[in-house]
């Protein structure tokens, strides 16, 4: 087997109209408009709903704790739950996720404990979890760099013959970075088993998408790499789940990468230190707040008799309990060992680092209060 | 990481070029460990523009040694993911200055991954970079970029100056669980010498005293080791005894070997091709001054490239440190006799 293949399929531009399976009103899109994509089953839809409710509550709680000063910063994913949760629930346990700083709820949905996810924003260590245990890479802060790591890992899995797939999130702003281009291109050439999920929330801090690209839409990029591209309604979790599931399945069976653009909106500021009133109209925000992905799915589930008051309350309670537990965890001071700063830089101990560690240890012994 | 390296009989038997020694090191590593893979620009059927990977695709197949798209950030970035999945990638940057597109991946990710994950994710990656001048290369083909890498915590930076070290150090770099920037002095690729050395090869993190002397310690690495040795020959004619150190490892720095030499000679000068200001020699001079000040009879000197971009081919001889310039610099010290 060679990494590259000589034959290239002719790939057309994706449909401009984003694929949706459930309308904002909660009604199901007519089969002939679903482009051959089936609505996920009832159990799956209910689970998507439950996990989005939990994620929303979690995100809200973290934002509140950040305002209280418990975290140094937090980029909220409010309103983008469909892309986040739809992608993660489409993944198998053996698959790998490469998230960005805005994808904390995706990492949470992968099963990483809260205090480990928020370690970086809280400030006790850059990445708090074991990436190998959760098959979830550290959250990337530099833009699009993680997409290349994801392509590399996917290619390694392919070389080893492991039938796994990799998913990575990329923001709309990050698609302007050279690494996004290189990641798409390497993935195409090496037929890497990877799904690029572009979370197009239409803003890179203050800069709107119109200043990032002159192309019709980000999914159009795919055709230039010989990769299938999809434009999906990023607030329709059913559509995201279905399209990502199909793309991951393609990847696992050796059919290569897929680029999926999820059209959504960042209803919150970039982070708590941002001031959106300087660059966008609040009426747009209100419009998109009404396009809430969780309420859309709820309307469908209720109309089908799958979600009654009792079940809804039980999900809310579950989310509330998780938020309470998280608040208690984060209200406790994190354990810090300043001397650990020197422990992980190299596998092999270096005399120079040992000297600097000893010097810090001396300072700490002189001033015991510095050590917590 | 292990520090044992072995030089097979095939490598010991006859004089080898550094290019052939590097090729043998990768060949042996590929044969020994199925997780070793090699990729980069033109490293496949062509064998690289310097032919360092000659024959490896033919002998190990395209799944082990292959041509990647022409994008250095992509090459290094994907190596990170491969290393996270258990591979031991060796990637080639075609020329020193062509490694700069990969700067962010190297500095923000390769160097930091182990630390940011609290020691949970190590990246056993070797980034091979043909480096420095002396071959009449056109613009952007002769940079000495070591200070960028040595200033970055998390990277191990080594550079061989001869075929025997090229073999043993590359083997050790490939076995290292930490990422290694492996700087290959391209002017030495065709240098031929017996790789047979007495005893076990020195671990790659140790400096070597390659010529003993009593009056001056010349500290060199990569392409300037040969310049320092030539300087020592010339100085001997004037009854000046020069000790030459080949640093081999730029990060970590072997304070012990350098310090012991400087305590004996009392005088030290460091030689490199890179520009002087903020260069690696500044770190060497500072370390010696901090640690051995009371053993020094004179200030530590730096004989380096000038603080200008690397010159066009016909002018490089005016830029590169040479024995005459080094001896002249040493003569500016006050000498007792």
UniProtKB/TrEMBL annotation, chain A:
<dbReference type="InterPro" id="IPR029061">
    <property type="entry name" value="THDP-binding"/>
</dbReference>
<keyword id="KW-0786">Thiamine pyrophosphate</keyword>
<dbReference type="GO" id="GO:0016624">
    <property type="term" value="F:oxidoreductase activity, acting on the aldehyde or oxo group of donors, disulfide as acceptor"/>
</dbReference>
<dbReference type="GO" id="GO:0000287">
    <property type="term" value="F:magnesium ion binding"/>
</dbReference>
<keyword id="KW-0670">Pyruvate</keyword>
<dbReference type="Pfam" id="PF00676">
    <property type="entry name" value="E1_dh"/>
</dbReference>
<dbReference type="InterPro" id="IPR017596">
    <property type="entry name" value="PdhA/BkdA"/>
</dbReference>
<protein>
    <submittedName>
        <fullName>Pyruvate dehydrogenase (Acetyl-transferring) E1 component subunit alpha</fullName>
    </submittedName>
</protein>
<dbReference type="InterPro" id="IPR050771">
    <property type="entry name" value="Alpha-ketoacid_DH_E1_comp"/>
</dbReference>
<keyword id="KW-0560">Oxidoreductase</keyword>
<dbReference type="InterPro" id="IPR001017">
    <property type="entry name" value="DH_E1"/>
</dbReference>
<dbReference type="GO" id="GO:0009083">
    <property type="term" value="P:branched-chain amino acid catabolic process"/>
</dbReference>
<feature type="domain" description="Dehydrogenase E1 component">
    <location>
        <begin position="49"/>
        <end position="321"/>
    </location>
</feature>
Automatic annotation (TrEMBL), chain B:
<dbReference type="GO" id="GO:0003863">
    <property type="term" value="F:branched-chain 2-oxo acid dehydrogenase activity"/>
</dbReference>
<protein>
    <recommendedName>
        <fullName>3-methyl-2-oxobutanoate dehydrogenase (2-methylpropanoyl-transferring)</fullName>
        <ecNumber>1.2.4.4</ecNumber>
    </recommendedName>
</protein>
<feature type="domain" description="Transketolase-like pyrimidine-binding">
    <location>
        <begin position="16"/>
        <end position="191"/>
    </location>
</feature>
<dbReference type="GO" id="GO:0009083">
    <property type="term" value="P:branched-chain amino acid catabolic process"/>
</dbReference>
<dbReference type="InterPro" id="IPR005475">
    <property type="entry name" value="Transketolase-like_Pyr-bd"/>
</dbReference>
<dbReference type="InterPro" id="IPR033248">
    <property type="entry name" value="Transketolase_C"/>
</dbReference>
<dbReference type="GO" id="GO:0007584">
    <property type="term" value="P:response to nutrient"/>
</dbReference>
<dbReference type="InterPro" id="IPR009014">
    <property type="entry name" value="Transketo_C/PFOR_II"/>
</dbReference>
<keyword id="KW-0560">Oxidoreductase</keyword>
<dbReference type="Pfam" id="PF02780">
    <property type="entry name" value="Transketolase_C"/>
</dbReference>
<dbReference type="GO" id="GO:0000287">
    <property type="term" value="F:magnesium ion binding"/>
</dbReference>
<dbReference type="InterPro" id="IPR029061">
    <property type="entry name" value="THDP-binding"/>
</dbReference>
<dbReference type="Pfam" id="PF02779">
    <property type="entry name" value="Transket_pyr"/>
</dbReference>
């Amino acid at each position: 087997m060679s990494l590259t293949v000589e034959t290239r399929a002719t790939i057309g531009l994706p449909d401009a109209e984003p694929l949706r399976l459930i309308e904002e009103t909660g009604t199901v899109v007519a089969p002939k408009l679903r482009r051959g994509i089936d609505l996920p089953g009832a159990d799956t839809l209910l689970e998507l709903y439950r996990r989005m409710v939990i994620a929303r509550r979690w995100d809200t709680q973290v934002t509140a704790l950040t305002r209280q000063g418990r975290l140094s910063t937090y980029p909220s994913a409010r309103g983008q739950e469909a892309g986040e949760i739809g992608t993660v629930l489409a993944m198998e346990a053996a698959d790998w996720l490469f998230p960005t700083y805005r994808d904390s709820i995706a990492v949470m949905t992968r099963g990483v404990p809260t205090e480990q996810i928020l370690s970086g924003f809280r400030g006790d260590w850059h990445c708090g979890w074991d990436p190998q245990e959760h098959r979830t890479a550290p959250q990337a802060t530099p833009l699009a760099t993680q997409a290349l790591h994801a392509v590399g890992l996917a290619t390694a899995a392919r070389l080893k013959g492991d039938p796994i797939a990799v998913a990575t999130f990329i923001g709309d702003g990050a698609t302007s970075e050279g690494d996004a281009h290189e990641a798409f291109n390497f993935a195409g050439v090496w037929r890497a088993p990877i799904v690029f999920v572009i979370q197009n929330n239409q803003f890179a801090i203050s800069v709107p998408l119109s200043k990032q690209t002159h192309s019709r839409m980000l999914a159009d990029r795919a055709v230039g790499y010989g990769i299938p591209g999809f434009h999906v309604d990023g607030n329709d979790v059913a559509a995201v789940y279905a399209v990502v599931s199909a793309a991951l399945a393609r990847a696992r069976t050796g059919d290569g990468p897929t680029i999926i653009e999820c059209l959504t909106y960042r209803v919150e500021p970039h982070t708590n230190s941002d001031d959106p009133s300087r660059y966008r109209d609040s009426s747009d925000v209100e419009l998109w707040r009404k396009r809430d992905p969780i309420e859309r799915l709820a309307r469908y589930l209720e109309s089908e008799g799958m979600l009654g008051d009792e079940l809804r309350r039980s999900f809310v309670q579950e989310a509330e309990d998780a938020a309470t537990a998280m608040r208690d965890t984060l209200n406790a001071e994190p354990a810090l060992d300043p001397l650990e700063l020197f422990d992980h830089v190299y596998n092999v101990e270096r005399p120079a680092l040992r000297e600097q560690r000893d010097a810090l240890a001396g300072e700490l012994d002189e001033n015991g209060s510095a050590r917590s | 990481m292990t520090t044992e390296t072995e030089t097979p009989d095939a490598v010991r038997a006859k004089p080898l070029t550094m290019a052939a020694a590097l090729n043998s090191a990768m060949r042996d590593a590929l044969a020994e460990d199925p997780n070793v893979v090699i990729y980069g620009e033109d490293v496949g059927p062509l064998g690289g523009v310097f032919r360092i990977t000659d024959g490896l695709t033919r002998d190990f197949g395209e799944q082990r040694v292959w041509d990647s798209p022409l994008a250095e950030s992509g090459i290094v970035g994907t190596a990170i993911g491969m290393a996270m999945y258990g591979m031991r990638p060796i990637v080639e940057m075609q020329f020193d200055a062509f490694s700069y597109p990969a700067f962010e991946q190297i500095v923000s990710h390769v160097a930091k991954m182990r630390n940011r994950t609290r020691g949970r994710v190590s990246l056993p990656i070797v980034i091979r970079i043909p480096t420095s001048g002396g071959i009449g290369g056109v613009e952007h083909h002769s940079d000495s970029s070591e200070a960028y890498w040595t200033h970055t915590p998390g990277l191990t930076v080594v550079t061989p100056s001869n075929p025997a070290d090229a073999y043993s150090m590359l083997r050790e770099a490939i076995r290292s669980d930490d990422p290694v920037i492996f700087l290959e002095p391209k002017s030495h690729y065709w240098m031929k010498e017996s790789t047979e050395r007495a005893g076990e090869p020195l671990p790659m993190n140790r400096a070597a005293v390659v010529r003993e002397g009593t009056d001056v310690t010349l500290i060199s690495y990569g392409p300037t080791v040969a310049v320092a040795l030539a300087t020592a020959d010339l100085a001997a004619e004037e009854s000046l005894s020069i000790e030459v150190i080949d640093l081999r490892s730029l990060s970590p720095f072997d304070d012990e070997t350098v310090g012991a030499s400087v305590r004996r000679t009392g005088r030290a000068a460091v030689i490199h091709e890179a520009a002087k200001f903020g260069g690696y020699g500044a770190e060497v001079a500072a370390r010696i001054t901090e640690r051995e000040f009371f053993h020094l009879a004179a200030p530590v000197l730096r004989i380096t490239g000038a603080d200008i971009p690397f010159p066009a081919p016909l002018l490089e001889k005016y830029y590169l440190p040479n024995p005459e310039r080094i001896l002249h610099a040493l003569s500016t010290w006050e000498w007792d006799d």
